[in-house]
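User: I'm curious whether this sequence folds into something compact or stays loose and floppy. Could you predict its structure so I can see for myself?
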Amino acid sequence: MEIHLTQLKSGIRPTPGFAKKKLAEFAVNVGVRCSHGCTYCSVAASMRMHHAYKDAGVSPFENMILAIVDPHIDDAVRHDARTMRKRGMVQLCTIVDAWAPEGVMYDLGRKCLEAILAEPGWTVRILTKNVAVMKDFDVVQRYRDRVLVGMSITGTPDKADVIQAIEPFASPIPERIASMKEAHRLGLRTYAMFCPLLPGISDDPEQIDELIQTAREFGAEEVFMEGVNARGKALPNTVTGLEECGYVFEAEATDDVRTRAVWSDYVRRLVQDSQRSVRKYWDIDKLRFLLYPTGMKPEDVAAIRADDAGVIWLGKEGTKASKEVSPVLS
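Assistant: Here's the prediction. I'll summarize afterward.
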């Protein structure tokens, strides 16, 4: 793994895209790339023009485990938390993981949490794939009413080995689930983040049922779900990662959704199976299915519109073609 240091221009900044997703009004990111190495991550494409890549002398598309982090980002966060007038929910983080190894090396997750929560009017939504966040549960406990703990869980434990092939340096799925149950045991506020649910890996109705029941077990206040973004190199990279580890069926299923018709059908089924499962095992009001309908077949969009309980329509809400790309939460 290569770790490069950079300096970011701001600590807390508005995030209109995540506000539309009902996740947060503001974002804090500790860098521009983390070392979890998720094959489907679209951050390299969306951040490819950032000066940090040029400064480091690396390409955003190099096939390597690379982290670019600001070791002093908490100073900027502390300043912004103190001086910004408008305040609200901050997501930590939206494009990188503050508890990835490089974040832990500089203790950035904890420092940013403390910097934000030291000022009134701020709340925090934690999103991570690393159980290293558990060492900071003491901070969350001090501000338990103002923090939501979330772990990105992209499949069920029986698929842990498959998921490890495409999320090689994130914590294993069973550990992520255990960390959420521990958060709930400690009385912390939690939410579920099941994004993305990949074809052939986590889109089976029985797997969705298991995930929803797991979210109920750790007391999730909200359940976010999403299909995989079919644009860019995310899917080809995922197919390659699966093939290299011998997961042929999963690779073929992922490769299939690169075509519009198959991807559209996959997303429609995912929405409907998610709704069915949440209604059966919990409360449909908790569902937040993030849907960019651009590129879907009209009949699939119509089917979802006929029952769109829990669906958050993004882009142009399916009425016109949208140029907005949905970044995969990483």
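Summary: Confidence is low (pLDDT under 50) at residues 318-330. The radius of gyration is 19 Å.
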